[in-house]
Amino acid sequence: MSDAQPGRAETPAENAAAPAVTPAAPEMTAAAPAGKGAASAGNGADPVVAATRGRPAMITVKDFSFSIGDKVILDGVGFSIPEGGYLSILGPNGAGKSTLLKCLLRLHEKGTPRGLVEVAGRPLGSYTQKELAKLVSYVPQAGGWIPPFSVLELAKLSRFPYATSVSTLSRADLAAVDRALEITSLGHMAHRPLKTLSGGERQKAYLAAALAQGSPVMLLDEPASFLDPRHTSELGRLLISLNRDEGLTMVAVTHDLNHPVRSGGWALILKEGRTSYFGPVEGLMGGGVLEKAFNHEFTYLTHPADGRPVILAE
Fold first, then answer.
1. What span, in angstroms and rounded, lies between the C-alpha atoms of 242 and 252?
2. Which residue of 47, 50, 230, 272 has the smallest Cβ count within 10 Å?
3. In Å, what is the CA distance from 14 to each residue of 6, 59, 159?
């Protein structure tokens, strides 16, 4: 069971190590629509099916709901992300974005899930926690409780799905750790305690630990929150590189509306626990998609330097 405390950000290793806390989702045979009242892009085709056409689905969610007591937090959510795909999850505060990630990780100690969640073609509930950790890693929000480890120690701890203890790490384990520190440019900080790092450096350390875990899917919960513009930009470029160059399947909760435009792939917008939009990120540019989700006006511009679209909140 996760030992999360209020105001405490769990490490990637802790989150993935938590045992199953939700029952296996029931089998469903028909693909659900994008969500109740959801807008979708395309010629009337089911976007959940279209998202993985031609590629195996890494994560499939169909008509998924989650409630705690009488409070419905997620209601009829559906999406699918192919192997090597990039999914950005957007939405107003309190829309259920972080809850959805925790459901994918089976980190909710209380609550009732309904619907189907599959990872790599198997029901989520059929995995042991170590099996799931070999497939899915997690990068928490910046801020909160800081683990009492160095950058290197945290990365080594993330190899728990493959080793019985840090003292028994194999050459392959150590090579995975070294490569993660190299990719994130943290080798020179390997022995620095996490508490001595800046917010941006610490977030990269969490990312390095998730990379060292060696999972093909990475879930990120507002990874750029609390970061300054420089570190936000650096982190965004690194995430896109991990997707395009390393082939990782990325699922990122973000409040940066321009990150999906840069990363490409698909966008899922939640509003009051329901799917407001699921489709290609290009569908965010106009058509009232963002205005409907956020009850706010937006301006759509072209970046003068590289010609990419830019979204500005009025």
1. 13
2. 230
3. 15, 22, 11
Cβ–Cβ < 8 Å for 189, 201: yes
For residue 233 the two structure tokens come to 């930009």
What does the alpha-carbon distance between residue 143 and residue 227 come to, in Å, rounded to a whole number? 10
What DSSP element (H or E) covers 80?
strand 71-82
Q: Give me the residues paired with residue 267 across strands.
A: 88, 279
For residues 165 and 212, the answer to whether their CB atoms sit within 8 Å is no
Asked if residue 251 lies in contact with residue 264, where contact means CB atoms within 8 angstroms, the answer is no
Q: Is 37 exposed, middle or buried, given 0-12, 13-18 or 19+ CB atoms closer than 10 A? A: middle
CA gap 223, 142 in Å, rounded: 7
Q: Residue 256 is which amino acid?
A: D
Residue 7 has pLDDT above 60, yes or no: no
Amino acid type, 261: V
Q: CB 225: neighbour CB atoms within 10 A?
A: 17
Q: Please provide residue 27's backbone torsions phi and psi, each rounded to the nearest 5 degrees.
A: -70, 145
- Which tokens in the block code for residue 192? 């620095």
**How far is the C-alpha of 79 from the C-alpha of 65, rounded, in Å?**
13
Task: Give the pair of three-digit tokens for residue 203.
Answer: 């977030």
Give 279 or 56, the one with higher predicted confidence.
Answer: 279
Coil vs helix vs strand at 222:
coil
Whether 206 and 172 have beta carbons less than 8 Å apart is answered as no
Beta bridge partners of 59: 81, 119
Confidence (pLDDT) at 143:
73
DSSP 104: H
Residue 163 pLDDT more than 60? Answer: yes
- Name the nearest CA neighbour of 85 among 219, 247, 235, 254: 247
Match 């909140």 to its residue by tokens.
313
**Torsion, CA 276, CA 294, CA 309, CA 284, rounded to 10:** 10
